[in-house]
Amino acid sequence: MRRALNLALEAFREFNLDDGWAISSHIALSALMAFFPFLLVLTALAGIFGSRELANQAADILLETWPEQVAGPIALEVHSVLTSAQANVLTTGALLAVFFSSSGVEGLRTGLNRAYSVVEERSWWLLRIESIAYVIVGAVTLLAFSFLVLFAPLIWRTMLRYAPGLEAFSGTVTLTRFAVAGLVIVVALVIVHLWLPAGRRTVREIAPGVVVTLVLWLVSGAVFGRYLAEFAFTYATYYAGLASVMIALVFLYLTAAIFIYGGELNAVIRQQRAVTPLSKPELEQGD
Fold first, then answer.
1. What is the reported pTM?
2. Structural domain count, the chain
């Protein structure tokens, strides 16, 4: 326990030394600015596959893990954008939407490069192309998950028609959306830590930070949601019509800080493991 506490405190110290709070604000703003363009990319791709309803389903999955007080107002705006988007905007503006969405990926890359103390030596245009590829692959993957969630009830009803005995498991099917949302987050965290920053790491090296990030996200989401349930009126007092946007920005700021802290924790643990232990002959000689 003492070693774990020392590692946690050392990671927080490195977080402060690497300007973690400032980078978190950059990531939060980039993520908020990239969110709606990313949804437009989703809608354009969903139109290609023949069902724009998939875009609405994907947006719901993205917001599923947010506190209800944060996701509620944003969800209304999201569905308004998705339902009112014109086809010509989705086709001619898709490239710009992809570009702006990739800026959020670049913000994550900057934070992790600082956390892992690595210097990016690749060309900026190559990094931008890579970020755009992440956006497109992420959008297609999310649409695939959305397809499963959207048609899961229909598939389940068909199965019950031929196997009524499965009715006892109907309660577990309702957890499909939460399971998919959780799976999307875990896979995204692993991919981002493995390949987004400069250099390469193993799954074993990034696992502690990913686990801690997930746990802290769950705790902070519950605490922040409870706080908003009691004091959300203060945001309406301070920011009037911008209250929902500011609430989302504060939540993203907290989420980004935890994300960077996970990278800092991985870096600290990696440094501790890099200390070469004494070999067995050396230990015997010392005795």
1. 0.79
2. 1
